[in-house]
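Residues and backbone
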Amino acid sequence: MNVKNQTPDESNERKVRLAARTFLVFMILSFLLVTCAGANSTMEVKVGVYPNEPLISQEQNGTAIGLYAEILESIAAKEGWELEYVPGTLVQSYQRLDNGSIDILPAVPFIPEIEQKYILTTEAPYTDWGIVYTYRGSGITSMNDLDGKRIAHVDDIFYESFNSSPGNGNTNYSFISAGSYIEIFELLDNKETDAGIIPRSYGEIYEDQFDLEKIPFVISPTDMVFALSNNTNPEIAKQIDADISQMITENGTIHYMQENIDKDITEENLSTWESPSWLKFSVGIGGGLLLIFVILSLTLKNKVEEKTYELNSKNRELEVEIRERKIAEEKLKQYSLDLKNSNELKDLFTDILRHDLINPATVIKGYVEFLMEMEEEPRKKEAMEAIERNNKKLIELIENAAHLAKLENMDDMTFKTLDLKEIIEEVIEHLIPKLEEKDITVSFNPSGSYPADVNTTIEDVFSNLISNAIKYSPSGTNIDICVKDVDDAWEIEISDEGEGIPDEEKPFVFDRFKRAHKVNIKGTGLGLAIVKRIVDLHEGTVEVFDRAGMKGTTFKVRLQKTKI
């Protein structure tokens, strides 16, 4: 047909036919390119499968099931991998990873021992931890109640972590090895064991089938990831991480989206394409509209995916926060129980100090004094004097330890208005025998009364500080005590002429069982710890520094004045 002689209708018909054929050729070429690319990128990947329901396991027909199997299937469909599942036990699967007979092992713990041997992914679809179950009415409410009890387990990381825990070295457990987690539940249900260690992932699915209770204790929270053989291309691990990070999370479950496009266009369809002009025109218009619709759909899809990804990221962050908070709550409950037990042990120890130890020491003191009055032989008398000196130190240690333990258990105390001048003068009067023994004088020249809201235990502060000044001062020296009026507080300074305290030891003088180094002077180191605790309960401060302008040490106590 001569183009110049075409009518307008024939020209339009030709344009429509050309557009329709161009669109069809474009769609066919796109399909062939996608098909070829998919065929060329197919890669065989061998995956180990072991019983770890619900994360990974295998049905009787050989199909791999579980969260990690579904994730891997989704990634394989996207990346063009052909998966071959190799079933076995966990031990067999690790051996196959070692010799390279499998490429990937799903749902393994991200722990240093595994990380050193294999290539691990970093994205964790699930975090698992061990939970201790017991039957109702067992009387087991904390880890301390498990001492001497029967504990059922399988050989997994949670049992190994529990058994190797530092606090379990002095605990007597009777372990029962079970063949599966469901067997542990059955043993508990029949009361054939007192407790059992079950992963959270398994327990959340099957615990409702049994009448059991959980102990508030979390064992080794662990991210479950994919492990790759060292013979496997490391890029596969990176690809798995990238795909997992893009998966959509809905209500805590990984959701997968796959698109399967099937097309059936053959060469015969093209070669036999002959239709009326109206049909060609309709196809052309329809194709154009379809192309516009596809473009709009892709644009809208991209926008939806961007917003969905942002929402997914927020949801993942929220899930992580909830998961971490839940673990923290479980740990806090356990810490509270441990703290309660610790306080009970401290109270028991304090009672033993106050009653069971002080009484025998007091009896020894009485008998030694009696024997010393009757004994005339010098050597025996010297031995008795040594016994008396050491027994006095023992009584002082017991009394100080009991006093400090009592103070540590106090959160507050009652106060009344007392005169610090009278308290200090009374302490000095009680210490006159020690002062005369070393020919030491005390300079204390009060200018009036010093009223303060204090507890009677404040006397122990001044008694300890002045006694220390006497103990560490050379004979024939002077101890200076002064009280200064500073704003709304009284500052009491007690200065001696001793050898002083090295700067590196000053930060530790108030720590229990730590004291500045003193030659030929021994003690428990509890006196200054008692001083610090009493002053803290008074909301005051106590400091130590070198004496200004001369040799010696100054202790400064700051206490609030009486509020008018």
Observations:
- Residues 290-409 form one domain.
- The radius of gyration is 42 Å.
- The chain is about 50% helix and 20% strand.
- The CA atoms of residues 292 and 527 lie 88 Å apart.
